[in-house]
Amino acid sequence: MKQYYQILRELREDNDETQAQIAKLLNINQRVYSRYETGKNLMPILYLKPLCEHFGVSADFVLGIKQKK
Questions:
Q1: How far apart are the C-alpha atoms of 66 and 40, rounded to whole Å?
Q2: What's the rounded Cα separation, in Å, for the pair 31 and 53?
Q3: CA separation (Å) from 60 to 16, 49, 52, 54?
Q4: What angle do CA 27, 22, 35 make, to 5 degrees?
């Protein structure tokens, strides 16, 4: 089972976006987002909704509960 941070990275890459672009969306520093995406830091839950809306997926998908977007 993939971890949420692996799924977020795949979503970002599939949409040809950079970590800097996603960090700007979340109003955080790119280095901070990088640490979330690599699993070095846990991502605060408050970022889940904007990321799901941006990528057009459910929270269940990002969390690995459902396989389909």
A1: 24
A2: 22
A3: 22, 11, 10, 15
A4: 85
> What is the tens place of the pLDDT at every residue in 31-65?
999 999 999 999 999 999 999 999 999 999 999 99
CB of 46 within 8 A of CB of 28? no
What are the domain boundaries of the chain? 4-62
CA quadruple 40, 12, 62, 33: dihedral sign = positive
| CATH level 3 topology of 4-62 | 434 Repressor (Amino-terminal Domain) (1.10.260)
SS in 3 state form for 5-62?
Answer: HHHHHHHHHHCCCCHHHHHHHHCCCHHHHHHHHCCCCCCCHHHHHHHHHHHCCCHHHH
- Reported confidence tier of residue 68, pLDDT bands at 50, 70, 90: confident
